[in-house]
Structure formats: structure tokens, C-alpha cells
Specification:
single chain; alpha/beta; four-stranded mixed β-sheet; four-stranded antiparallel β-sheet; 4 helices; about 30% strand
């Protein structure tokens, strides 16, 4: 059963969104026996499912992670997704998230939100390209990890997959990301 924060978010959703939520819960419940699902961290999976439910109805190839008014240094992410055969993968949904300029993912002291605060969605064009406008994230506020961006992709053909995390080098303010899909879904 979902926790209270997720239930509260569902109650606030309209008819079509609420239908999606219920379908996602049914799908997740039916998939519990699958060992791939068992490998996902339950908190991460809850956050991802909530983000998936709240995604835009029709994302374009140009997405936004951080709002224009978000404090921080602007950054552009330019990405390409390829099929396992090396061909451009069009019509692939891309989810990306990262920390804010102070190193928090969920708001101040990482305790304010049910899912990632700075996250966005895009859908690849026919050449497998996508873009995100955002800010340069900071390293983890506890000093555990350097600045980075997480990517997850959803393909009608290859399923949902974790893409490699892209760490940001010192002095790097625009990112290029190349993702090659695997034959099978990760979760």
C-alpha cells in the first residue's frame, strides 16, 4: 500500500492522471515477484513512480529540470539516445534529475518533498536527440558524491532503463550525454 504522501498526491490529481496512478500501482503490484523490480531501492522506485505519474502529458525534445528562477549557474544538457544496434532512438521518454546548487535533492535538508525537486522530462526527436535546460548541480551536501545528473529512459521497444549517471567535471557547465539502450528493461 502506498504511503500517505503518495496518497495525498493522488487525491490532488484529475481523472486521467488518477487513472494513470491506479494503473501504475496495479502494474507495480503485479511485478513484485520479478527479481529486476526487487533490485530497485524501494524509496527510489516510489519517487520514480510518483515522478512518472506527474510527468507532462506530451513532453517535447526540449525539457526543463530547474525553473528559470532557480538560483544557480545555468547549464544545458545535450543528449542522444541510440538503440542497441547504434541507430538513433526516436520517441524515447527521458527523465533526468539532480541536486540543487546547495547539494539537496528533495528541498531544504532533503525533507520537504515526496519526489525529486529538480527533475524534468523530454522525449527524443526522430534523431534520438534531447535537451534539458537547468542549473549546474552541486555535490552532495554531505560530501559523499560529486555533482552529477541521473537519467532514466522509457522506450516502447526496450522498456524502462537506468542510464549511466553523468558526473560533472570541475569547470564543466554544459553536458553532452550519449545513452545506448540495452536489449532488456532494467525495471
Amino acid at each position: 500500500m502506498p504511503d500517505a504522501s503518495v496518497l495525498g498526491a493522488v487525491k490532488a490529481l484529475g481523472g486521467e492522471r488518477r487513472r494513470r496512478v491506479l494503473c501504475a500501482w496495479l502494474f507495480a503490484a503485479a511485478s513484485v515477484a520479478d527479481p529486476v523490480w526487487a533490485a530497485a531501492d524501494p524509496d527510489w522506485l516510489r519517487n520514480w513512480n510518483l515522478a512518472f505519474i506527474q510527468r507532462p502529458e506530451a513532453p517535447s525534445s526540449i525539457g526543463r529540470i530547474a525553473a528559470e528562477e532557480e538560483p544557480g549557474v545555468p547549464m544545458l544538457i545535450v543528449g542522444t539516445i541510440l538503440t542497441p544496434a547504434g541507430e538513433p532512438a526516436g520517441n524515447v521518454l527521458v527523465h533526468a534529475y539532480h541536486r540543487d546548487r546547495d547539494g539537496f535533492e528533495f528541498g531544504y535538508r532533503d525533507a520537504e518533498l515526496a519526489t525529486w525537486r529538480l527533475q524534468g522530462w523530454a522525449k527524443t526527436d526522430e534523431l534520438g536527440r534531447f535537451w534539458f535546460r537547468t542549473i549546474r548541480p552541486a555535490a552532495d551536501h554531505l560530501g559523499r558524491e560529486g555533482a552529477h545528473v541521473h537519467f532514466t529512459v522509457v522506450s516502447d521497444t526496450y522498456g524502462r532503463q537506468w542510464a549511466p549517471t553523468r558526473f560533472i567535471e570541475s569547470g564543466e557547465f554544459d553536458l553532452t550525454v550519449d545513452i545506448e539502450l540495452k536489449e532488456d528493461a532494467d525495471f
